[in-house]
Write a structure and sequence with these properties.
Strand content: 5-15%
Number of domains: 2
Shape: globular
Radius of gyration: 21 Å
Helix content: 40-55%
CATH topology of the largest domain: Dna Topoisomerase Vi A Subunit, Chain: A, domain 2
Low-confidence stretches: none
Oligomer: single chain
Distance between the termini: 68 Å
Number of helices: 8
Largest sheet: 4 strands, parallel
Length: 200
């Protein structure tokens, strides 16, 4: 045992299992928690326990929710005829921060990746199909990641929904604001050229 407390060792071990948290960072976090006033440390523990016990997935879109329907699906001001498909709940947060999208979402909880054993049945696709078949949805915006599995997922969704007569679009990709052309890779430049828009 590295530490004088088995409980501390256990805390460090559990923290190091979190994404992007190495052993040294886990150790720093554990010692920080030990320094916290007891009420602050207990608030942190309660927040973790509450999330584990009470947070689930929205039955309509698959997003994070504390009830059957998430806050976005329950909002009457959202446009139900447009659905943006994303890979993970975190993607919803990123898109919502833009403040420019007022439709609904659909969270797949992953992307197609045959090498990792992830096929269509492993994604939240059946409920997307049901939503579109219900007849309210007119456009599906595919916002999967711009990588091999995200592209494969986007193509699969397009082929899946095409026979239903719904419009399927893909978010534009290209050169980010503030960057220089010389630092952009060939794939990004190609996408930017393909997705060019008319200037008015």
């Amino acid at each position: 045992m590295e530490y004088s407390s088995r409980l501390l060792e256990t805390l460090i071990e559990e923290l190091s299992r979190l994404p992007s948290i190495g052993r040294k960072t886990a150790q720093r976090l554990a010692f920080h928690i030990l320094k916290l006033p007891q009420d602050e440390a207990l608030r942190l523990a309660t927040a973790i326990t509450s999330v584990v016990e009470r947070v689930r997935h929205c039955q309509q879109c698959g997003n994070i929710s504390e009830s059957e329907k998430c806050l976005i699906c329950s909002d009457p001001r959202r446009a139900p005829e447009t659905v943006c498909v994303v890979e993970q709940p975190g993607d919803v947060v990123v898109l919502e921060k833009t403040g420019s999208y007022r439709g609904l979402y659909h969270v797949l909880h992953g992307s197609l990746s045959p090498l990792d054993g992830k096929g269509p049945d492993d994604l939240n696709l059946a409920s997307l199909l049901k939503r579109v078949q219900a007849g309210v949805v007119r456009e599906v915006i595919v916002a999967t990641n711009p990588n091999v599995s995200g592209e494969a997922t986007a193509m699969y969704i397009s082929q899946l929904l095409h026979p239903l007569g719904v419009s399927v679009s893909r978010i534009a990709r290209g050169i980010p604001m503030g960057s220089d052309l010389e630092y952009s890779d060939q794939s990004t430049l190609a996408r930017a050229l393909e997705g060019r828009q008319k200037m008015e």
